[in-house]
From TrEMBL:
<feature type="domain" description="RSE1/DDB1/CPSF1 second beta-propeller">
    <location>
        <begin position="529"/>
        <end position="589"/>
    </location>
</feature>
<dbReference type="InterPro" id="IPR015943">
    <property type="entry name" value="WD40/YVTN_repeat-like_dom_sf"/>
</dbReference>
<feature type="domain" description="RSE1/DDB1/CPSF1 C-terminal">
    <location>
        <begin position="1039"/>
        <end position="1372"/>
    </location>
</feature>
<dbReference type="InterPro" id="IPR004871">
    <property type="entry name" value="RSE1/DDB1/CPSF1_C"/>
</dbReference>
<dbReference type="InterPro" id="IPR058543">
    <property type="entry name" value="Beta-prop_RSE1/DDB1/CPSF1_2nd"/>
</dbReference>
<protein>
    <recommendedName>
        <fullName>Cleavage and polyadenylation specificity factor subunit 1</fullName>
    </recommendedName>
</protein>
<keyword id="KW-0539">Nucleus</keyword>
<dbReference type="GO" id="GO:0003676">
    <property type="term" value="F:nucleic acid binding"/>
</dbReference>
<dbReference type="InterPro" id="IPR050358">
    <property type="entry name" value="RSE1/DDB1/CFT1"/>
</dbReference>
<dbReference type="Pfam" id="PF03178">
    <property type="entry name" value="CPSF_A"/>
</dbReference>
<feature type="domain" description="RSE1/DDB1/CPSF1 first beta-propeller">
    <location>
        <begin position="269"/>
        <end position="403"/>
    </location>
</feature>
<dbReference type="Pfam" id="PF10433">
    <property type="entry name" value="Beta-prop_RSE1_1st"/>
</dbReference>
<dbReference type="GO" id="GO:0005634">
    <property type="term" value="C:nucleus"/>
</dbReference>
<dbReference type="Pfam" id="PF23726">
    <property type="entry name" value="Beta-prop_RSE1_2nd"/>
</dbReference>
<feature type="domain" description="RSE1/DDB1/CPSF1 second beta-propeller">
    <location>
        <begin position="594"/>
        <end position="959"/>
    </location>
</feature>
<dbReference type="InterPro" id="IPR018846">
    <property type="entry name" value="Beta-prop_RSE1/DDB1/CPSF1_1st"/>
</dbReference>
Length: 1407
């Protein structure tokens, strides 16, 4: 193997930066649909705190940038009659119902857009608009990247995404003088912006300040005409940038800087440990200086300070500093303003502190600090508007918290608040928290803590403290930092599974989080539903469940409670077999519902059933007298949207049935002439029924035609209610593959798109397109000539085989549009609203020109403001649809286990779950191919599902409720309340031994007395400490090894045993090892633990090796673990590995091999290397790979004859290793190492080549920048793929191929997989093309991102033998024509490229 592919499988989740600003909407133009008018009325009517316009939340995690909108739901209680206006919408699953605070009962985050950037974001700020009329203007996002790159992004309404408004780069030869000869800098660039939006500043290269001058409204690097296009709103823009050298101003080093109001040139003396500045908002003004041991406030007229602990030193040492009422250290704290005089600090231990500035006019008298709650360990905090804060975290889940100040903010629902009184935590998965009753919640109360958090200042009467109450409204899951992981068997694994289904037997158990946010994350890439029952059933074609409501005793005007439809039980299960149809009754108890008829469609007709009685029978085929072929046409596919039924016939025509609610009968509507005139046959069609408080497409046309919506009896039958029920027909014709929307009843074309098949990034109505994009025609002619014949051939067979459009529950949801192409590609679009100003007149001209049959006078009813943006499907693997007879593969579901979305059946069944308006794609591989799927909700199976496998089994299941599916992979988080360090898996008993450490506070004299020097054997001197200092406390970490067992029912995991370490002893490594017992001549599987005593630098390092046997007696947990051996060695024991029945131990600077006699370890061989500290040991056969913390890697071999460890080769460079592993490709062995600069290198051993210095030097094979610290590699055998079987390649070469799964500190998981040379060359050429063909957000170059980062050290560039699948996956997102064009340019075909990418996905689907 000389070639490899890098592939991300789970993107970073640890949030490093967060900011808030009006990105997608301005302060005045509240987002279209952020709240309805009724809610605004309701808020202003009551005397509550006014919740102002809420800005967006922007977060970054590694190289991922996400923009969210905060959605709020007001109390239902106070709304009275306002609620009739269709506001009875269902809340999305992420909106956790909680207590009411300030008139809000729930709030949640909804994703607007997300991007993967070609660089890691170092810092981020939001540039707000300057000038007078700020209300119409929007903010921009300023991102800074290493070393000195700055991108400014703004939201573009026309594409519903971010666009780059300016880029500023101060790198490269012409800017080298800024570095003044230095190559590495302690900190990356830091961005701050002026609160009035006049400029931004970026500190780079230590002491160079880049000033970004903001343009005045309407001027800037982008022309005016563009600004007007986006609905008259203008985003803040940068006009120019220049550099100020701070050395010229006599500065030596800068820790932090900020913009302060109204200063001329202040200079202040600060303590040495000051590290953060915070500008105090007006009307007070001034600056707050945060240091580790004290807080200082300075303004031009006054300054005051507050000592936080005994180490605080007054700057001018003359005056005494006032002391805080409790001791705290504020190094590494994050801070944000709640009010203009109250700041909230989040400390390194996860406590929230409130700092109040006691002031009079503009003079601050003193600072007061009080304790609030405990919360997550934050990496950044930000205030969103005047009611929310966001706590971003790399170490735990990030949280959206609502806060309210003062007595006025009473909280209504007491049960919820009791649940949240303790810490602001969100460890329980959302599904569980929703189910938890208030009685359970009482256990969460922390004793004696009051709801309104008063300060602990003694004189409460005079204290100026305000009281705050907090409520967690939403949380974003984080699985980082992944320190270690283990690959184990799932609890519900199927031992008989074969092929691809076998993969879903495994799961990844990861050590993640830190301190009280420490947790075990159980990751499963594919979903395995919990089986309730299964039946053998062969020859099944489809399954459906239907509701049925008896008319007797049913009152049509019953205003039944909200969500009744959701809770209604299914009445019948209908199973379509090859020869007959079975109908099974599923529930004896039915809820309320208005479904009074069931329609059953078969090949030549339809039946209307009332329960099990047929009330009407229709037959097709004689209606359309004009077409002679219609006699033989049969129904191929059906789409139902009450009261319409749409049929697609085998001759390519369509028929529409409409139900009459009064007589409960169905009649056939004549099909409009639009389609008779076009002789196109229709390849796919669907009905879309817009439900919801705000009918979506109505907003996208401004005309009055909508009053022809179906008139249904709804409460409050005013115009608004009628408009809700508008049904569209979505049709798609085959030849030009255009997409057409029709209004039902009138059946006029209201939206059409040409060449839907090509998968353009944005769709707009063809008329709008024609009018605005005249230039496109000339381009397309050119490309057609280039590719000529190829295109025509490949265009013939591409058609849409299935269409679906759905809008899921929730007030602010937007419809999704799905199209399945005949080659297995899934197109997914998300609708959005964009009002183009200047196109209207052009459209009317265009219409008069086009005056053809289907477009006559139709400009009035066009959905001209409806647009669609294509959504990338991250985890989706296409499958070639080889089946000749098309079957419907898309099934929508509204509630399966609390989630909504769609299920795609087929060879690789996949769930698409809609969480926060974002599609989460999770495959389901456990049963192989699935032919039919439907939802089932009844007494025995609550919100479950039924599916039929291709082997002929019907299974009734539920989704596992312990998993959270709102993540890249489904995850179960098991809180440990301790820091996990390393985990290993014992397969025989399926146990997970795990190293954890818990911080323990001890008196200082106790800590000192335990630090005894073994050699001298005497107590250490501490005469220089006073008695007071001896009684102060000190925090130490206490280590233990816990043996955890997964719970069979999927509940919380059980701790079966604990192995405690001694005083000041740290467990460094835990491994299950199989050793050959030389006495009994048998293999034994033991648990091996390596430890080190941490006793300061005066004491020589020692460690222990411990061996335990597991599971002789499973009943009694005391006897589960028994110690069989323990010995103290010199040096810290940092790594262990079994080697052909021996035990290899890395202790200090020595690697030793031991024999096991059953009671004793005897050293048989050693290698005295210069390693300083071994971080990893890997073994293949008799080869050993040693990774050192500072000295790169060593390649050793073990010879049984002569019992010796010999060094074969090493890397002579200096490299700070994080993790190592062998990569195996057939008979080739490579050595992979990750380092502290976030790179990965692959080396190989070639003793015969001259440059390897007679074999003593390892040669580089590939190098690559991953952009995250890789902490663990796991070698897993790759799965055989379809092309391997068809090519008939020699079996051994393909099967003996292993990829490396890796985990990183920012919560991402990826893999490095070997490639054969032909595939590599093809994909590398494609990669070079895509660098230019794909627009990169922020103007960042993927090639420079993936280059080896050296941080200024000398490094000889190695070969670029790794392809970047992060860039290659953009290929599938390109329009079809561009895909063909690029494939043609690099001399291959589109099919070949897609097969290569698909094989890589299939070969590495390990979970």
């Amino acid at each position: 193997m000389s070639y490899a592919a890098f592939k991300m499988m789970h993107w970073p989740t640890g949030i490093e930066n967060c900011a808030s600003g009006f990105i997608t909407h301005s302060i005045s133009g509240v987002v279209p649909s952020i709240t309805s008018d009724d809610l605004e009325l309701e808020w202003s009517a009551t005397k509550r705190k006014e919740i102002g316009p809420i800005p967006n939340l922007i977060i970054t995690a590694g190289n991922v940038l996400e923009v969210y909108i905060v959605r709020v739901h007001a109390d239902d209680s106070g709304s009275g009659s306002n609620n009739k206006g269709g506001l009875n919408y269902k809340l999305p699953p992420e909106a956790k119902k909680g207590g009411s605070m300030d008139g809000i009962s729930s709030a949640w985050l909804e994703l607007v857009c997300h991007y993967k950037l070609n660089a890691n974001v170092e810092t981020m700020a939001v540039l707000s608009m300057s000038g007078n009329d700020v209300s119409k203007r929007r903010d921009s996002i300023v991102l800074a990247f290493k070393d000195a790159k700055i991108s400014v992004l703004e939201f573009d309404d026309s594409t519903h995404g971010l666009r780059t408004s300016s880029m500023h780069c101060f790198e490269g030869p012409e800017w080298n003088y800024l570095k003044r000869g230095r190559e590495s800098f302690a900190k990356g660039p830091v961005v701050k912006v002026d609160p009035q939006g006049r400029c931004g500043a970026v500190l780079v290269y230590g002491l160079q300040m880049i000033i970004l001058k903001a343009s005045q409204a309407g001027y800037g690097l982008v022309g005016d005409d563009e600004a007007n296009g986006s609905g008259g709103t203008i985003s803040a823009r940068i006009e120019s940038s220049y550099v100020v050298n701070l050395r010229d101003l006599d500065m030596k080093h800068v820790n932090d800087f900020t913009f302060v109001h109204g200063y001329i040139e202040p200079v202040m003396n600060l303590p040495h440990d000051a590290y953060k500045l915070l500008a105090v908002p007006s009307p007070i003004g001034g600056v707050l200086v945060i240091s580790a041991n004290s807080l200082h406030y300075h303004s031009q007229s006054v300054s005051c300070a507050l000592a936080l602990n005994n180490y605080a030193v007054s700057v001018d040492s003359s005056q005494e500093m006032p002391k805080s009422s409790f001791n705290v250290e504020l190094d590494a704290a994050n801070v944000t303003w709640l009010l203009h005089d109250v700041a909230m600090l989040s400390t390194k231990t996860g406590e929230l502190l409130l700092l109040t500035l006691v002031y009079d006019g503009r003079v601050v008298h003193r600072l007061e600090l009080s304790k609030s709650r405990a919360s997550v360990l934050t990496s950044d905090v930000i205030t969103i508007g005047n009611s929310f804060i966001f706590l971003g975290s790399r170490l735990g889940d990030s949280m959206l918290v609502q806060y309210a100040c003062g007595a006025g903010s009473s909280i209504v629902n007491s049960g919820y608040v009791k649940e949240e009184v303790g810490d602001i935590e969100s460890d329980t998965p959302s599904a569980k928290r929703m189910r938890r009753a208030s009685s359970d919640a009482l256990q969460d109360i922390i004793s004696g803590e009051e709801l309104s958090l008063y300060s602990s200042a003694p004189n409460n009467s005079e204290s100026a403290q305000k009281t705050f109450s907090f409520s967690v409204r939403d949380s974003l899951l984080n699985i980082g930092p992944l320190k270690d992981f283990s690959y184990g068997f799932r609890v519900n694994a199927d031992p008989n599974a074969t092929g691809i289904a076998k993969q879903s037997n495994y799961e990844l158990v990861c050590c993640s989080g830190h301190g009280k946010n420490g947790a075990l994350c159980v990751l499963q890439q594919s979903i395995r539903p919990e089986l309730i029952t299964e039946v053998e059933l062969s020859g099944c074609r489809g399954i459906w469940t239907v509701y049925h409501k008896n008319v007797r005793g049913h009152n049509k005007d019953d205003s039944s409670k909200m969500g009744s439809e959701d809770e209604e039980y299914h009445a019948y299960l209908i199973i379509s077999l090859e020869s007959r149809t079975m109908v099974l009754e599923t529930a004896d108890h039915l809820g309320e519902g208005g479904k009074r008829r069931v329609i059953q469609v078969y090949a030549r007709g339809a039946r209307i059933l009332d329960g099990s009685y047929m009330t009407q029978d229709l037959s097709f085929g004689t209606q359309n007298s004009e077409s002679s072929a219609s006699e033989s046409s049969t129904v191929i596919s059906v789409s139902i949207a009450d009261p319409y039924v749409l049929l697609r016939m085998s001759d390519g025509s369509i028929q529409l049935l409409v139900g009459d609610p009064s007589s409960c009968t169905v009649s056939i509507i004549s099909i409009p002439p639009v389609f008779d005139s076009s002789k196109e046959s229709i390849s796919a069609c669907t009905l879309y029924h817009d439900k919801g408080p705000e009918p979506w497409p109505i907003k996208t046309s401004t005309d009055a035609w909508l009053s022809t919506g179906i008139d249904e009896a709804i409460d409050g039958a005013d115009g608004y209610a009628k408009l809700i029920r508008v049904t569209y027909t979505v049709l798609s014709a085959t030849k030009v593959a255009s997409l057409i929307f029709l209004m039902c009843l009138g059946l006029t074309v209201c939206f059409s798109v040409d060449k839907f098949v090509s998968g353009k990034t944005h769709l707009a109505d063809a008329l709008v397109q024609d009018a605005s994009n005249d230039s496109q025609d000339t381009n397309s002619k050119k490309t057609e000539e280039v590719a000529g014949q190829i295109k025509k051939e490949s265009n013939q067979n591409m058609k849409i085989v299935e269409l679906a459009m759905q809008r899921w529950a929730g007030q602010h949801t937007r419809p999704f549009l799905f199209g399945m192409l005949s080659d297995g590609t899934m197109l997914c679009y998300h609708a959005y609203f964009y009002e183009a100003q200047e196109t209207t007149s052009k459209i009317e001209e265009a219409v008069s020109v086009h005056n053809s049959v289907d477009l006559s006078n139709s400009s009035t009813s066009r959905l001209r403001n409806l647009r669609f943006v294509r959504v990338p499907l991250e985890m989706f693997t296409r499958e070639e649809s080889s089946v000749a007879s098309p079957c419907q593969r898309i099934t929508m579901f509204k509630n399966v286990g609390g989630y909504q979305g769609l299920f795609l059946s087929g060879y690789r069944p996949t769930w698409f779950m809609v969480c926060r308006e974002r599609l989460r794609v999770h495959p389901q591989l456990c049963d192989g191919s699935i032919v039919a799927f439907t939802v089932l909700h009844n007494v025995n199976c609550n919100h479950g599902l039924i599916y039929v496998t291709s082997q002929g089994f019907l299974k009734i299941c539920q989704l596992p409720s312990v998993l959270n599916y709102d993540n890249y992979w489904p995850v179960q988080k098991i809180p440990l309340k301790a820091t996990p360090h390393q985990v290993t898996y014992f397969a025989e008993k399926s146990l997970y031994p795990l190293i954890v450490s818990v911080p323990v506070v001890k008196p200082l004299n106790q800590v000192l007395s335990s630090l005894v020097d073994q050699d001298a054997g005497q107590q250490m001197e501490h005469d220089n400490l006073t008695s007071d200092e001896l009684h102060t406390t000190y925090t130490t970490e206490e280590f233990e090894v816990r043996i955890l067992e997964p719970e069979k029912s999927g509940g919380p995991w059980q701790t079966r045993a604990r192995i405690s370490m001694q005083n000041s002893e740290n467990a460094l490594t835990v491994r299950m090892v199989t050793l050959f017992n030389t006495t009994t001549k048998e293999n034994e599987t033991l648990l091996a633990i390596g430890t080190a005593y941490v006793q300061g630098e005066d004491v020589a390092a020692r460690g222990r090796i411990l061996l335990f046997s597991l599971g002789r007696n499973t009943d009694n947990s005391q006897d589960l673990v028994s110690e069989v051996y323990s010995k103290e060695l010199k040096g810290a024991i940092s790594a262990l590995a079994p080697l052909q029945g021996h035990l290899l131990i890395a202790s200090g600077p020595k690697v030793t091999l031991h024999d096991w006699t059953g009671s004793e370890l005897n050293a048989v061989a050693f290698y005295d290397a210069p390693p300083l500290h071994v971080v990893s040991l890997n073994i293949v056969k008799n080869f050993i790979l040693v990774g050192d913390i500072h000295k790169s890697i060593y390649f050793l071999s073990w010879k049984e004859q002569g019992a010796q460890l010999t060094l074969l080769a090493k890397d002579f460079g200096n490299l700070d290793c994080f993790s190592t592993e062998f990569l195996i490709d057939g008979s080739t062995l490579s050595l992979v190492v990750s380092d502290e600069q976030k790179n990965v290198q692959i080396f190989y051993y070639a003793p015969k080549t001259s440059e390897s210095w007679k074999g003593s030097k390892l040669l580089p094979r590939a190098e690559f920048h991953i952009g995250a610290h890789v902490t663990k590699f796991l070698r897993l055998q790759m799965r055989p793929t379809s092309s391997d079987r068809t090519n008939g390649t020699s079996g051994s070469d393909k099967t003996n191929r292993f990829a490396l799964l890796f985990g990183t500190l920012d919560g991402s998981v990826g893999c490095i997989a070997p490639l054969d040379e032909l595939t590599f060359r093809r994909l590398q050429t494609l990669q070079k093309k895509l660098v230019d063909a794909v627009p990169h957000i922020g103007g960042l170059n993927p090639r420079s991102f993936r280059q080896f980062h050296t941080n200024g050290k000398a490094h000889r560039p190695g070969p670029e033998n790794m392809v970047d699948c992060e860039l290659l996956c953009h290929y599938e997102m390109l329009p079809f024509e561009d895909q063909l064009e690029i494939a043609h340019q690099i001399g291959t075909t589109r099919g070949q490229i897609l097969t290569n990418l698909n094989d890589l996905s299939l070969g590495t689907s390990f979970l």
